[in-house]
Each structure stands twice: as C-alpha cells, then as structure tokens.
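Side project, low priority. Logging it here so it doesn't get lost.
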Amino acid sequence: MGIQFASDAWAKALMQELNNSAAYANAAKKWEGDFYFIINKGDGMPEDA
C-alpha cells in the first residue's frame, strides 16, 4: 500500500526524494524562494490541505 496523498508521511517522503535527487539539486541550485502545495478537498480528500 502506498502513502496517503498530502499526509505528513507523504510530505516527508517527497522531501526525502527531492533531497536525494542529483537532478533536482542541479535544477534548483539557483532557486531562492518558497514552494507551496495548495490541495483542495475532493474525492478521497475530506478537507483542504
């Protein structure tokens, strides 16, 4: 079974994947700023996240 989308475990798994990715590190090396996920409730998602 996978990780529930938009859960704390999902966010931590995404962070780990990004931190371990050389391709992401290269693409983001000059990035300065924040990134926000806005997830609206819907099928299988009982509340906004």
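Brief comment: The chain has a mean pLDDT of 90.
Revisit when time allows.
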